Amino acid sequence: MIHSDELLVVAKHIFWFGTPEDALEFPSRFLTYAMTYASDEDIEILRKYLSDADFEATLDDHAPGIFNRRCAFECRTGLGAHESRWAGRTSLKCD
Fold it and tell me: What is the pLDDT of residue 9?
């Protein structure tokens, strides 16, 4: 994963218990935390660097113990089955 200054700031916001560099070391874990805890502004930054496929892959193989079944279900069903789940969305949170 790219270690841009913007991504390091986002990592610091959502991975408060470790270093931003540690957060970016494992992209699946980082994105799982992002999909659970990132602000809308953080998601806008992430979307500059990551594709819909990256978010889809995280849903399919997310780091365990970070988001719950309800969150995963809501993220998966947020958009229609025939379009990308993330098209046009800035927030991925399952509030």
Answer: 95
Report pLDDT for 53. 85
How crowded is residue 15: how many other Cβ atoms within 10 Å of its Cβ? Answer: 19
Euclidean distance between CA atoms 20 and 1, whole angstroms: 12
* Integer Cα distance of 73 and 76 in angstroms: 5
Q: Which regions in the chain score pLDDT beneath 70?
A: 68-95
Q: What is the maximum span of the chain, computed from C-alpha positions, in angstroms?
A: 38
Question: Which amino acid, 12?
Answer: K
Number of neighbouring beta carbons within 10 Å of residue 50: 21
pLDDT at residue number 23: 92
Q: Which residues, 6 or more positions from 57, have their beta carbon under 8 angstroms from its beta carbon? A: 28
Number of neighbouring beta carbons within 10 Å of residue 86: 22
